[in-house]
Each structure stands twice: as structure tokens, then as C-alpha cells.
TrEMBL record:
<keyword id="KW-0645">Protease</keyword>
<dbReference type="Pfam" id="PF21337">
    <property type="entry name" value="Peptidase_M17_N_1"/>
</dbReference>
<protein>
    <submittedName>
        <fullName>Leucyl aminopeptidase family protein</fullName>
    </submittedName>
</protein>
<dbReference type="InterPro" id="IPR011356">
    <property type="entry name" value="Leucine_aapep/pepB"/>
</dbReference>
<feature type="domain" description="Cytosol aminopeptidase">
    <location>
        <begin position="308"/>
        <end position="315"/>
    </location>
</feature>
<keyword id="KW-0378">Hydrolase</keyword>
<keyword id="KW-0031">Aminopeptidase</keyword>
<keyword id="KW-0464">Manganese</keyword>
<dbReference type="Pfam" id="PF00883">
    <property type="entry name" value="Peptidase_M17"/>
</dbReference>
<dbReference type="InterPro" id="IPR000819">
    <property type="entry name" value="Peptidase_M17_C"/>
</dbReference>
<comment type="similarity">
    <text>Belongs to the peptidase M17 family.</text>
</comment>
<dbReference type="InterPro" id="IPR048816">
    <property type="entry name" value="Peptidase_M17_N_1"/>
</dbReference>
<dbReference type="InterPro" id="IPR043472">
    <property type="entry name" value="Macro_dom-like"/>
</dbReference>
<dbReference type="GO" id="GO:0004177">
    <property type="term" value="F:aminopeptidase activity"/>
</dbReference>
Amino acid sequence: MTPEFAPSHQDALPIWPVWQGQPVPDDADAGTWPESCGFEGAAGQSCLLPDGRGGVAGALFGLGNRDRADRQRFPLARAAETLPEGIWRLADIPEGMDARQAALGWLLGQYRFTRYKAGTGAGRARLVCPQGLDAQEVQAIAAAEFLTRDLINTPASDMGPQQLEDAARALADRLGASIEVTSGPALLDANLPMIHAVGRAAQAEPRLIDIRLGDGDGPTLTIVGKGVCFDTGGLNLKPGASMGLMKKDMGGAATALGFLQMLAGTGAALGRRIRVLIPAVENSVAGNAFRPGDVLTSRKGLTVEVNNTDAEGRLVLADALTLAAEDSPDLMISFATLTGAARVALGPDIPPFYCDDDATAQAIQAAAMDAADPLWRMPFWAAYDSLIEPGIADLDNAPSGGMAGSITAALFLRRFAQGAGRYVHLDIYGWQPTAAPGRPKGGVGQGARALLAALPKILP
């Protein structure tokens, strides 16, 4: 599915967005019809306007309470889902409504995951891009989000390490980027031992995917995405209820690939050198699986005591971050569906992010709100460093006690990111548990649009 605006058309039907409690615009010429239909402008409420000949002349669409607009991201997305098939245009952009976010929300609301379901070709309401917006840029952002959603929604039977590599190769080919993949025993030869250890029990070989886009002497951006294509928990086996969503444990990799497509599609990649590293593994159970109590030696040389094989994401990321930091990128970003603790703290909608540089963090926080892609800064709290230092190795992959789980995971990763100019870590969820405007239930990208919006300030 490709998110696209409709071509401008003289017969496009007008939509008047209306804040709850505000009067209907005079040019809608609606008379008492909205009142008789019970239209109040509540979020997602629509009112079709008759043309007097049995047809539709346009529609009113409710934006909800303007004073609580932050509660409803992409309210206009509901129009894409509920209005009749046809071509529509915004007849009015009321004060307080962001036309760009409204248009993007409309496109995001068109998303459907149709790979396994027949009979999903129903017509849809299409929007003419509002004047003054860059239609290609908005479409590129939506298309990149669709890629991320498709990758996350695909079950592990069709999105294992090999298929994730295939998707990365297809994207690299479309963008004219180079790609190298190191897999199986070659990971040991390349000194990527923890990626190999985590993935060696699976039938599909573990691998590291390495994509490079751009050359010259521009600023360097390295993106690392956790690609655990399915997580059984290893020998510390997850209960069934916890294993049900583990096809999404490669959500960091999916977001990294979507972010790369977004950078290229919007022109933000121009003048920058971009690298994407994805450790792609399946954490499985077999006789050769890594064990609780094992001590692994990382690429960096730091030893890690494995106190829980279900804390495997930070292990594969550690080797990838070390490799990335050896190039001393100006900015390094990691996306990972890393901890349940982040969900307990902030819920599914607001991923925490970690960054030691205040100016970078402030720019990201501000951009996240403007882009309707919320993030919340959490601290690399140095006082907790002792929690990740066990007795017999340099580091512990799963500190006991259960407190500050997202922070201790971020501190663990930071040990391996040293060498990068600045490091930003996002502990994302990658999943929309209940449908919301522009975000149907299922896989979802988090953080990429915020970082795209922040990029001019954090990597000029």
C-alpha cells in the first residue's frame, strides 16, 4: 500500500474541520442541518452535508476540545477512515489546527496490513494535499512509516533474520546504498561474539546487517536497530502470554530501516553520511543456546555475565554499538524494543529516550511534540552504574531487584557507545495496543519523525 494524496480535482468535496463548541463556518452553508444531526464537533464526529439532489455536498468533521487537543493525535485521520469513498479537500483550516499534521494523519489513517487477508481492496476517502505543503515530503514520511509497520506486523515465520536481511537489501537497492552482511560463524571471525551467542541456537543464522548511504565529508549519523526477529526468552523461557507479541521484538530494526527511508525520501540524507547497523537474530531454545550464568566476552573486550537469557537485546546491541563507535560518528542513535520497565513507567505511547548532551536532548524533546511523535527524556543516572556490575564479570545483563530497568539497560548500552560524538538511545514499544487516529492496532514506528524534525538542529 502506498500513501498518496489525491490529484487536485475541481469536484473534490469540501471538509470543514470544527472544534467542539465552535460555530460551523458560514461558507459551509449548513443551516440547521448539523444541529438536527446532533453534530457538536466531538473528536472524530462527522456530518455529511446534503446537496439537495440526494448526494453529498461536503462534510463537517469534529476535532474535539481545542483545550485538550494534545489528547488526540491526528484527529483528522478518522475522516480518512469514516468518510465515503471519493476525493476530498480541506475547505478550512481553523486556528489551532496544524495543516501538515492533519494531512500526515490522513495518510497514516489509510494504513492497512493486507498481506494475509483477501478482500481488502475497498475504496477509500482520498485527500487533496492542502496548499502550501510539500506533498512529496509528507508522502515520503508516511511511506517510511508504512514500511516500519509492515515489517513489525509480519510474523516471524515470514520475518526471520534472513527475511529482515532481504528487506534491508531491497531498501538499500532502492536508495542506491551499499550493504554488507556478516552471518553465522563469520560473526566470530569478525569479532562480533555476542551477536553470535544470542542467535546461534536458531535455525536461521544470526547476522549483522551494515548499510551505508552517502559519501564525502558531511556529518556522520549512525543508526543501530535491535533486530530480534522472535524472542522466546531463550532458556529463561517466556510464558506464553509474554511471547505472543514477540514478533515485534525487531521493532527497533524496523524503525531504523523506516528512518533511513524517511531520511532519503525527504532529502534529509543529502550532505550527510548515514550508516545503519542491524544485529538480526532469533533468540531460541536448543542444546547450543547460551545459558544463564555464562560469561560472554564482547567485541569491546568487556565481559558480561548472563543472569537472564531474556535480556538478550542489549547483548546484540552492545557488539553493534561498539563497531559503530569505532568510526566515531558525530551522532549515534539506537532504536530498541528493550525493556518492559519503559512501558510500566510511560505506557505504550511515550518512549523514553536517553542522551547526555542537553542541547541535543532539548532539541529532540521540542521536535517530538511538534511532530506529534512524543518522546520523554530519562536520565543516564550514573549512581545506578553499580547495579550493572556483578561480582565475576565487568557487566551484568540483568540486574536483580527489578528497579530502574530501562535506566540500567540504557547505562549498559552506553558502556559500548563510547567513541561516538553524541549518543541517543530510544527504548521504544513498537506496537499500538488499541486503535487510535492514524494508528491502527499493530506495529507502529516511534521516534523517527521526531528525530527527522530535530535533525537540522542536532546534525546541521
